[in-house]
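hey so i finally got around to running the thing on that chain from the lab meeting. sorry it took forever, my laptop kept dying and i had to restart like 3 times. anyway pasting the input first so we r on the same page abt which one it is
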Amino acid sequence: MSRIGNKIIQIPPGVKVTIENNVMIVEGSKEKLSQGIPPRVKISINDSVISVKPADNSKTGSAMQGLTRSLLANMVEGVTKGFRKDLEIIGVGYRAKMLGNKLDLSLGFSHPAIYDVPEGVTVTVKDNTKISVVGADKQQVGEVAATIRRYRKPEPYKGKGVRYVGEYIAMKEGKSIG
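ok and heres what got predicted. didnt touch it at all, straight out
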């Protein structure tokens, strides 16, 4: 039995939730998100509460209930507050800057790494080394942040590279002569 799936989702004021053709649409003041509904799940909207129930008593139905509830809760939170991931660049000469809708990363390569920022996500650079990824879709924000981090992952000897703010990097000891 799903514990996450049994929790109800409160719909805040100013958010409109509709179901059309097995697609859940959540509209806020700034954003509109949509998500397909798995076939083994029933969703009911009463007053300002969304509840998710499995269509049958199978293990898959219970798993889909928890997944669907989490996705819908993230959609509601995304259109009201939004999501944010912060990255930092560590390394001498490593920096980032925005060029219109492109992120230009100088990470020690012979060429700059250019990343096209997708629609629905806002990327800002502060102090040439701090990158903020902000958007309404939690999956898209996480994917953009992971893609930017993938250009130069933090290495374990000096810690140079792109990392999430607060991320712990296990540092290795260098070679010892002796």
